[in-house]
Give the backbone structure.
Amino acid sequence: MSGADKKDWIVGAGAPLQGRIRVPGDKSVSHRAIMLASLAEGVSRIDGFLEGEDTRATAAVFQQLGVKIEAPSPQSRIVHGVGLRGLRASADALDCGNAGTGMRLLAGVLAGQAFDTTLIGDASLSKRPMRRVIDPLTAMGAVIDSETGGLPPLRIRGGAALHGIDYELPVASAQVKSALLLAGLYAEGDTTVREPHPTRDYTERMLSAFGWPIKFSPGLARVRGGADGRHALRATDVSVPADFSSAAFFLVAASVIPGSDLTLEAVGMNPRRTGLLQALRMMGADIVESHARNQGGEAVADLRVRAAQLRGIDVPEALVPDMIDEFPALFVAAACASGDSRVSGAAELRVKESDRLAAMSSALRALGIRVDESDDGAVIHGCEAGSAPFALDPQAPVVIDSHGDHRIAMAAAIAGQRCQGEFRIGDIANVATSFPGFDTSACGVGFSLREA
């Protein structure tokens, strides 16, 4: 990102959060809906589509591969599927932007094509390791070249004959699992993926909704191979729920800002995604679900959250895979809680858009919180019950480096609401990858936040 593109926020003590808010559509569901609708036979409509840079990048890739995608209105897409074998080669590289989900899942789809492709990304994505998706795809017969260390760009050779495998993930990852299942659509024989801990099952649910033979249960997924041409994805309409990861920032903010009473509407409640909700309730959060219903195959509910005095906990390792994207927000909750909170088994955080363990530990230390960092987690030493967790020295201006990571930037914005004084959050432009309009939505319910 050029210096001209960089943006900063100034944040400070905000008002109690009040009212109702609907956060943008689920990013994971939006990515997968575009992919499967493009590979389906017939026309699919997607409503609630996340208008973020990551998901738009995925849509642009499929348009580059010959898929007609219309946008009749914001948050809506009409996708004219080309079938499993209908994608066309592109003369140019396929740019995934900042989307690690997009690149990993696309690697699975493109491994089964008859033509060569190259996947590229922005500066941040180009530093993210892809070896753990390259290796099992190679075991299926894919031919993929990368930079040293398995870094992008990924150059995927066309014409490879894929075969199904029975693969046990060394580290639980919904992205790697999904890449293998998507490659399995093009493989001879079945593809089975086993996980050390169950991860989100959006791909499995959506493959079933599009009519593909698949069996899945927590920790196990098996997809029928499609190399014989006997199976097809059938166009279907998809209603995307509100993104739990985006809602997470408001769940934490309303929990830690005194006097808050906020309702989040139609939040996706996939059980493999809501680990943070369980952790917050263990900490004493006051969060009530209502109007539970099913929306396009996914459970959704309204969440009312009221301020509460949180207490530190040892986060159960079993919850880690189900809240891996929500740890930046959890770190802020832990800093505002009384007592210590311990996180372990979260080494995955070091290979996200930034090293989130290091970035959040550094951010909290800059705000006066003691954090003991380890290889796979941290101990966050919370504040005294009833005291303000963050106090700034007016003679020493604080700048929090987001490292271009949208979740670090939004987590720091929550912390700012409990500060005495203001500080700057640097390099926040990538917030638009997952939550376009975050600042407007946040200020609308009580945040004090402005662009520098």
Summary: The mean pLDDT is 94.
